[in-house]
Write a structure and sequence with these properties.
Family: Belongs to the LysR transcriptional regulatory family.
Organism: Cryobacterium sinapicolor
Keywords: DNA-binding, Transcription, Transcription regulation
CATH class of one domain: Alpha Beta
Protein name: LysR family transcriptional regulator
Helix content: 40-55%
Strand content: 15-25%
InterPro entries: LysR_HTH_N (IPR000847), LysR_subst-bd (IPR005119), WH-like_DNA-bd_sf (IPR036388), WH_DNA-bd_sf (IPR036390)
Oligomer: single chain
CATH superfamily of one domain: Periplasmic binding protein-like II
Radius of gyration: 29 Å
Amino acid sequence: MLRVVGALADHGSITAAAAALGYSQPAVSQQLKRIEQRIGMAVIERVGRGVRLTEAGRLLARHAATVSGALDTAAGELSELRGLRSGRVRLAAFPSASATIVPRLLADLSRRHPGVGVTYLEAEPPEAVALVRENRADLAITFSYPGDRVDPHRDSAAGLVVTRLRRDEMMLVLPATHALAGDGAVDLGDLAEENWIGGCPRCRGHLLELCGHTGFTPRISYETDNAAAVLGLVAAGIGVAMLPALALDSVGAQPLVAIRPTRDRDHRTLHAVTVTGAAGVPAIAATLRRLIALAAEHTAHAHTAAEHTAAEHTAAAAPLAAPAVASPASSSSPAGRGN
């Protein structure tokens, strides 16, 4: 009933209020009478051929928007609760998210909304975005490198709804015995003469562009999509690498390596991609909300963990002799995991 008072305050007459609400004039008049009977005070008074709100009516009008908004929110939440007793979400994400964000998201959804069925498919960003566009996935977790001149993600996600989740710091991975392993942030140019181990194709493309801005072309002597293999090669003294913090989190601590941020704090951006209107589907909306919340919780942890790991690895490896360094072999790219 308070909607009637609010509409009268907004539109100035019973006729206009009725039109705005989609009610008949008699229906509006009847609701006003019920309000007056309930509070024992007049809410309107006649002025010439029209009406205006009394002081009591104006007081009610001030509260009408708040109360109506709360009722709308409650109705939406009740509708969502009713919808989340069942439903499904088809989720896609890249490999390092598979071992970090996705398990936490699935466990959280299972606990909060046990009636919602979730299916999961691992896919790198271009493929994951295509799955959403082709209606084979409802939500994709993706990443992009916003500073790169060429951004495949921007083009592939055109016309879809892209929600920013968080930054994912790019970290340098060095042998623990490296001359720069004990430093803080490392200038990329100081690694221009090193042998590099390339990560996933998109990561390699970003490395090439980043090094190009710095003034050199990295000598990528080894390539693998497997983040654990990258760390193993670095630990053996084969070369240096750059990996996202999330990829490092996905494989855990590796002895004999040092993790360092770049001097300019290079990063990639994590996104959630859905089709327009997906937020109106209760199960997808709930999944997206939980994903945003979990990504925010992980933001501070990811960078702190990487810095902490760097200190631990450097300290643990300090007494050890430098491992033998193998001569570069021809580039190899075993089938494996992206980053």
